[in-house]
Structures are given as structure tokens and as C-alpha cells.
Amino acid sequence: MLKYDLLYDLARGWQALGKLSIKKIESILRKRELGFANDGDGLYLRVREGKGDELQVSWVFRYRLDGKQRSQGLGPYPQLGLAEARDQAAAAARLKVIGTDPIEQRRESAEAAKREAELTAQKAITFAVLAAEYIESHKAGWKNAKHSQQWRNTLSTYAFPVIGELPPSQITTDHMLEVLRPIWTEKTETASRVRNRIELVWNYAKARSLCHGENPALWRGHLDALLPKPSKVATVKHHEAMPYQDVPQFMVKLGSLNSMSARALELIILTACRSGEALGASWDEINMGERVWAIPEGRMKGEKAHTIPLCDRAIELLRSLPRVKDNPFVFPGERLGRPVSAQAVYNTTKLHGGEAITIHGFRSSFRDWAADKTNAQREVIEMSLAHVVAQGSEASYWRGNVLEKRRALMEKWAVFITPLTDNVIAFKTM
Description:
The chain has helices at 2-10, 22-31, 82-97, 102-124, 127-138, 146-163, 173-184, 188-207, 230-233, 247-255, 260-271, 275-279, 312-320, 342-353, 361-373, 378-384, 392-401, 403-417, and strands at 35-40, 43-49, 55-65, 68-76, 286-287, 292-295, 306-309.
């Protein structure tokens, strides 16, 4: 080794005579002596031309390992002083003695430091941050704009106080139980939604390699062993329905009201549709000639297109409604380009139907009437309510053959609920 170093130095016009000192280094730099200055024990000061008149000065540890000559850069001079350079060279020499390559050791240490930095960065990405990212990246696919706010509200209220500031990798089953147990029996439906949303956000984090292993919010095969089934503890809340015997008198009240909300509620009752389907109805969905109302899948709860046969009363109602310029909605609201508000229809229902009655409950009124007063097949009734009753070829059969049966059923319903008007609804021009 010494012989090699001496030959190496002599080839560059330098002879390694003793250790380097600050004075020797200053002299080398003053004289601009390029090459390697040997400090001994494998440590060299390397001097090279830099930009302009500058010199590039750095420390190098040179060594042999497995018969191969290697050089390890230690750092620039004077940022790395002589004493510090000797310490680093000594540490590298100790590694070489035990058969460890100092260069490989440094590389492995750098990689470990990088992994540690990445882990630290991951810890800074909290569940709350990831939830916001998830909502932002998925909201375009949600048909209801309110869905995003519902996500934010439920997670902010129930999840974030426990896990909001934690990285997903640190969320445990115990955390999930802390979130869910206080609301599992009292607010079962909300609790189920919270659990599902946590599960989805955690999976999002896993897809970004921010966590690994089993999802702590997983229900089947995990939380189902720790919590009772939602169906076993949930309090079933039925929509309060007006007895179908009382609907005719209620329709008389609606007919006397000169408001767009009353007209909208009449159509809801006549067609047994959902309130959102009626309030979002546009004139391009209505075919007066064929007497049908075709609701596209994007507006349906089950995301399946639904065709409603329009009875005589519904047609007469629709013809009485005004067409508002620049407003495509069947039931235009006071705001430009907007339909009548759900709150207005809700207020009309409560004011004239009673505090306990809900808009959705009129669908139950229709179903009860159809079951008690008609011989209609169950499938006909369910399809009139836009419920999925079949799959595959059977579903195709029902769609193709049941429309006229549904039309006859809805005509009977209309006659039943409007007998006091001599089969004519008294509509007023808005």
C-alpha cells in the first residue's frame, strides 16, 4: 500500500514526506500545485483546476479492497478541515479492516436516510389531508353536488377528532372503535357511512403507498367481529305516510293553492315519483304525444333510466304550467334558471298535510292503495315506484311489457285521489 502511494505521488511530482499541515496546504494552494497531496493512511488532498482562476480542493480516501483500488470523496476543503478529514478517513479505514466497503456503506447510509426522510414526510400527510384529496378527486363522479359536503361534514364531526391528525399508517382498530362505538347504536346509519368513508380514504392512501396491510375500517372479516350488525341495532325510520283514504281530500286542498310548489306536489302524488325526480324534471324529458316522462339514469336513485306513464290528470296539469324563458324546468323557481325549491314543497306538505306527513310518504300511500284496492301484480307496483324487481332477461321482459299495465294502474290511482273534482283538477295559471 505504501509503495503504491509513493509511486502514485512521485508520478505527480510530489513526495509524501510526513503529514500535511495547514501551512503545507496553504503553500500548495498558493503555488497552485495540482494533483494529490498525501497525508498518510490513505488520506489525500486533491487539487484541480476550477472555473476561472478558482481551484477545486477536496479530500479523498484511497484504499484497496478485494484487490481493487478505490477512491472515496470525503468533502471539500476548507469546509471540511484537516482534522475532520482525518477522522473520516480513520472511520473509513476501520470499515475496510473488517471487510466493509466504505463507499457501499455510505451509499447504504444515504439510502437509509432517504427512506427515513420519506417516512417522516409520510407521517406529515394526515388522514384529514388525504380525505380532502379523496373528495376532490372523486366529486366529479358524484351525481349530487351535496354529496361532497356530506362527506366533509360526517368525517369532520365523527372521524377527525380521533384520527384526523394521524397518518393512515398509524390508524388502528382501536381508533376505529373509538370513532364508531359512541354512534353505532344511536346513529347506526350515520356510523355505517362514516366507517365506509374511512375505509375508502384508507384504501386511497394505500394506493399511494402511504400505508400497508389490512384496512382497519374493513367490515367483513374484521369489524364485524367487534360490532353488532347494523341491521340488528338500527332503528328503522319509516317515512310518515298519509293514509291513502285521506289523499283525495288533500288533493282538493292542493288544487285550491296557486303556487308552483303545490303543482309540483300534485305531480309527485299522481306519479308516485320521488321529490327530487319531479323538481329536477325538464321539458325535454316530457313527451306529451306518447304521454310519457322519461327520466335519465343520471337523475335516478338507482342510476337506471325510468319511464313514467302520464295519466290524464298529469297531462292536464303539465299543460297548465307556464314555460319560462331560459328556464328548462317543468316547475320553475323564482331564481333564474332554477326549479322550485325542495323547501317550498316541504313547507306546502307540512302546512296542508300535517307536521308528521312527509313528501316521500305519498309513495307508501300509493303502494298501500295498490295492494288493498287493486289486483295489480307486485312487480307492476314495484316498477311504478322505480324499484328494481328483476335482473337480466327477466328485467328486460318487464321493461318491455309492463308499461301499459303501469299506465292503467296510475289512471286508477288518479281517479281515486281526485273524485271530488269531477275528474278534473282545477289548475290556476301561475
